[in-house]
Amino acid sequence: MSTYEIIFKLALSCILGGVIGLERESLNRPAGLRTYTLVCVGSTLAMIVSIDIYLQYYQTVNADPGRIAAQVVSGIGFLGAGTIMREGASVRGLTTAAGLWTVACIGLAVGAGLYIPAVAATILILFVLIYFIKFEQFITGLREFKGLVIVVEDRPGQVGRIGNILGDMGVLIKNIQLSRIEESDDLEVEMLLELPSGKTISDVIDELNRTIELRKVDRLN
């Protein structure tokens, strides 16, 4: 592998990672231009090193050209986990984490000399990030999500009763988290609910209160 080819690969990965990073940066995401660029260039370098080691030692040892590069795919998960944040009953940063993982794969592709797939993947990713959000907003606009935190008596079958009540109302539980309040032996239930058309969060609270005594109620949004 010539020096010029190595420089070209690193420069191309810098451009491809930077282009995707710019889109994330424009939305003030946890990982932006610099992070995406570094991940892409680093992945390319890892692939270059893997290939170079293989070409140097394949005649004397059983070298695997994909061993170093394979660690990038799994290792990038730790970086992606740092971009995921929990806010109330919702989770943010999953798209950014997925983008970092995909950019790492693009960097590996560039390092392996797969320029056309790398460029095509970059274009597709930009298309998804820019245009799919409009489609996502349209679909999400047809549904109503509400966060709700209730405190109830901690006794057997309590969570099941809550689920049955919500199920009878046609309300879907998208996320739920339970925590016991030690001082009072009560149970705190935090939920992200998808409400059907014609139902409000007030209707849900009233129905729950009719069947289960609610010690405390908080609306998250």
Total separate domains: 2
Radius of gyration: 24 Å
Q: Helix content range of the residues, please?
A: 55-70%
Largest sheet: 4 strands, antiparallel
What average pLDDT do the residues reach?
A: 80
Characterise the protein shown here.
This protein is of the alpha+beta class and 221 residues long. The protein has 2 domains: 3-140, no CATH class; 144-219, ACT domain (Alpha-Beta Plaits, 2-Layer Sandwich). Helix content is 59%, strand content 18%. The protein is built from 7 helices and 6 strands. The protein has helices at 3-26, 33-57, 67-81, 94-111, 115-141, 158-168, 201-211, and strands at residues 85-87, 90-92, 144-153, 172-181, 186-195, 216-219. The strands form 2 sheets. The chain has a 4-stranded antiparallel sheet, with helices on one face. Strands 1-2 form a two-stranded antiparallel ribbon. Strand 1 (85-87) and strand 2 (90-92) form a beta hairpin. Helix 2 (33-57) runs parallel beside helix 4 (94-111). The longest helix has 27 residues, at 115-141. The N and C termini lie far apart (56 Å). The model has no long low-confidence stretch (mean pLDDT 80).
